[in-house]
Amino acid sequence: MAATPPPTPRAVPCPPAPGGCDAPAGQPCTSHSGTRERHTFHRARTASWETARLEAVPAAKLVADAAKLRRGMHGAHAAELLDAHGHTTEAERIRLAVSDRNGLLSAKQAAELLVDDAERGESR
Ligand SMILES: [Zn+2]
After folding, report:
1. 7, 53, 99, 118: which sits with the fewest CB atoms below 10 Å from its CB?
2. What is the Å distance from ligand 1's center to 103 Cα?
């Protein structure tokens, strides 16, 4: 059985210049007009990958979008929002995480947690 590689920005294409190098999904980023392989990813590619990860997890997207509008939104509010939209399992998950961290969980971190959970579930 093949091991699932860890998710990286390589999964999405790199945006074209000036932000990125236009590398197709699955290919490494390049520099110097494509002649040299980069060991890191262009920031624009990482950003588009983060967006794609959120899009794949509706509950996380919901929380991330709300957190963008409400600065300093707390994990507890994220849980309420999830409940209100019928994501009860995810809401419970976030409430547990908030209590595990003694209340120190932001909505942004809550969204990241949900993405991590979903990706771990896929690779099982
Ligand atoms: Zn690139």
Report:
1. 99
2. 38
pTM flag (> 0.85): no
Ligand 1 center to 40 CA (angstroms)? 8
Where residue 16 falls among pLDDT bands split at 50, 70, 90? very high
Centroid of ligand 1 to alpha carbon of 45 (angstroms) = 6
pLDDT tens-digit readout, 46-83: 999 999 999 999 999 999 999 999 989 999 999 999 99
**How far away, in angstroms, is 120 Cα from ligand 1 center?**
26
Q: Which of 48, 63, 36 lies closest to 9 in space, CA to CA?
A: 48
Task: Measure 70 CA to ligand 1 centroid, in angstroms.
Answer: 31
77-86, Cβ contacts within 8 angstroms, sequence gap of 24 or more: 77/107, 78/107, 78/110, 78/111, 79/110, 85/59
Token pair, residue 23, equals 């590398």
